Every structure is written in C-alpha cells, then in structure tokens.
C-alpha cells in the first residue's frame, strides 16, 4: 500500500500569532482578543472545524455521482463546544479539546431525500478528517534546540 505524506510547516511570528505554510499557501493563525491574541486570523481549533467542514463538503462532491445527486449548492455549518480548563471523559481522562462537534449540511439538489441520505451516510463513513477525530491517531513529536 502506498502512503501519501502531507506536510505543513508552522512558524511562530509573535505573541499568539503564527503562520503555516502548506505547499504554496500561507495560512495565518491567531487567537481572539479574549484569549490574548490580536484577532487577525482563525485560531487552531477553528481551523480544525475548517478542516472537517472542508472534508465533508469535498467528500459530498466526491461521491455525489455515485448516488445520482447533482449538487447545486452545499453549505456545512459546524460548531464545537470546549470547556475552559478541560473536562473529564467517560474513562476518567482529562481532556482539553472539543467535548462535542456538531455539523449540519444544507444541500440544494433535485435528488430524492433517500439518495441524499445514502450520500450522507457514505460521507460519514469515508471523511478522513472525521476519521482522525473519531479514532485515535498516533501523534509523535520531537524538539530540536538551536543555540
């Protein structure tokens, strides 16, 4: 099986601002004023919602023809709840991330509801970002110090 490696490089700029380079794109990262940022860009958890919404939207497009759904317009609205200071999950583990993420897909199409629901089920089963959030993904970090 061939593995595709995705790459990103994030550089801290100042305060609570950073910038990530992905291929030829640059994405700003900042915190809102109430979290000591300067509110010039989305924060990391908002970017996670962005990644999930983008994955859902593009997955809909990827599988639409299979279910005979002609998408005229599609909007994915997302929201996630975080508890300041963290929360304890059902296994007693303290978590600092989202407690829940909810999304709603609004689709404009002439396809039947049955076909749209079949498409939605396929998207839920195949969206890679959703899979990474629902299932444990191993994260390995390291640090190098430059003097």
From TrEMBL:
It comes from Candidatus Infernicultor aquiphilus. Gene3D superfamilies: 3.30.300.20. This is Peroxiredoxin. It comes from the Bacteria. InterPro entries: KH_dom-like_a/b (IPR015946), OsmC/Ohr_fam (IPR003718), OsmC/Ohr_hydroprdx_reductase (IPR052924), OsmC/Ohrsf (IPR036102).
């Amino acid at each position: 099986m061939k593995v595709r490696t995705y790459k990103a490089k994030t550089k801290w700029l100042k305060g609570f601002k950073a910038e990530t380079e992905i291929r030829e794109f640059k994405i700003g990262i900042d915190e809102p004023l109430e979290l000591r940022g300067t509110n010039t860009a989305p924060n990391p958890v908002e970017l996670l919602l962005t990644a999930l919404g983008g994955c859902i939207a593009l997955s809909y497009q990827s599988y639409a023809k299979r279910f005979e759904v002609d998408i005229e317009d599609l909007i994915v609205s997302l929201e996630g709840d975080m508890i300041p200071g963290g929360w304890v999950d059902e296994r007693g583990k303290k978590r600092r991330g989202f407690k829940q993420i909810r999304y709603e897909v609004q689709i404009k199409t002439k396809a039947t509801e049955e076909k749209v629901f079949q498409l939605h089920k396929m998207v839920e089963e195949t969206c890679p970002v959703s899979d990474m959030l629902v299932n444990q993904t191993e994260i390995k970090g390291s640090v190098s110090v430059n003097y």
